[in-house]
Amino acid sequence: MYRNILFLICFLFLFGKADAQKVFTSEDVDSLKQHIQQAMVDWKIPGLAIGIVQDGKVVMAEGFGVCKLGEDQKVDANTMFGIASNTKAFTASALGLLVNEGKLSWDDRVVDYLPYFELYDPYVSQNFTIRDLLCHRSGLATFSGDLLWHSTSYSREEIIRRIKYLKPVYGFRSHYGYSNLMFLTAGEIIPAITDTSFDDFLKYRFFEPLEMQNTNISIRFQKGYSNLAIPHITKEDKVIPIDYISWDNIAPAGGINSTVNDMNHWLLMQLESGSWNGKVILPEEIQQELWSSNMVQNVSNMQHFLFPSIHFNTYGMGWDLFDYHGRKVVNHSGGLDGMISQVALVPEEKFGVVILTNSMNYLPYALMHTVIDLLMDYEGKNYSSIMNKLVNRNKEMEQLSIEKEEQSRNIKSKPSLALEDYTGVYTSKMYGDAEVKITDDQLFVQFKPAPVFKSKLEHWQYDTFKIEFKAFPSLPEGKLTFTINSLGKVEKMLIDVPNPDFDFTELDFVKVH
Known about the structure:
Elements: H1 2-19, H2 26-43, E1 47-54, E2 57-65, E3 81-82, H3 88-100, H4 122-127, H5 130-133, H6 156-162, H7 180-194, H8 198-207, E4 232-235, E5 238-241, H9 251-254, E6 257-258, H10 260-271, E7 275-276, E8 279-280, H11 284-290, E9 295-297, H12 301-306, E10 313-315, E11 320-324, E12 327-336, E13 339-346, E14 351-357, H13 363-375, H14 383-408, E15 424-428, E16 432-439, E17 442-447, E18 454-461, E19 464-467, E20 478-484, E21 490-496, E22 509-511
Antiparallel strand pairs: 1-2, 1-14, 3-6, 4-5, 7-8, 9-10, 10-11, 11-12, 12-13, 13-14, 15-16, 15-22, 16-17, 17-18, 18-19, 19-20, 20-21, 21-22
């Protein structure tokens, strides 16, 4: 009898404690608003929208700041932003629906659906699975090949056909390497099976059933939508608006545009075991597969410092996974030229948050942890302030490095050859052609697949020239170096534009003689 009573007490204590859940209060929302407003000043963010859901209800859906710097239109819960790589969860979920319908299996070979899919290694090409596409274990470096889609005229199929020229830097399935091109490939499996385009599949299977009325898959559909956030970047310490870049040819990796109100529907469906208004949109067993670890990522020293409770960091399919305060967090970030977003779910607490911003910043990532701290009633650090200081310090270090490089160059040096000898067509097996020509005694370079990638070449030293793609203010100034062979002729053109997203060194342009 005594043992039974003791067991009952322990049972009630343990399960009573597990059921006790922090509920977001109006005080929490007010505190969060104040934090956001100060953080936006610190990060120089023009506009931000945030949505929070809990226990099947919307706790917060609000906008801050303006859609475009210098104009009066305020950001609200219906302001449309690009969500970029938060599209990947939709793509993985779409394939999950086809798995559920028996039309494919996660471990089917990609070449069985897309015979033209080919990687650098023939063995990898023949054994690459749909699961491999969705968890970043191809062996390619992070963002490898992304210049194939950036502003090019290449179709989705043509981009995929060119992947075979990208050299892997890791062993197959041995290392995490974030790949937009693999998600593009995943998206193209859908029309191969269903005779429905990827874009329409998302519209009919997710956007319409979830009543995401202000969500689309292309900036083409932004025309006529007046409540639109404009992307911004920082150039020479000044925040400036920039144009949207089309993601149409890479849409399965990052093409969706949406609002906080619409994304709240997506979060609520996820937290209700894949159901929305009593209807199953995404079967729970498929959802759990997407949320299961497939690829290990390292927990960085910075994560250990900022978030000591984190023990693991992995990738499922279309979702990042880590633990925080003893809870599993299903999340993903998104970044396009001039916008950053963050989505996070804490399934055990039936809690979710979406953060959309119209500038390049790390606040959404920091804010995700601040919001979860509030949920877990945990007094954490001011992650926004700490990360902002680190980013500013890195900028200072980068500027010092640039100044040091400038001081070390030989300003008296001359090009090895006459300018005419550098002109001509240069070709890259992976990318296509570029042309160097002379206009008004000045060398210019232009990429053929993406004509907006053009720049004058200003001599820096020896056979190296400064290059700047002015159509894309987010890209810094870089260097273009001509290599001269033993016969005194130009052999190659090597480009380096230091930035975290696009690797120009992969282009490997060889002169056509």
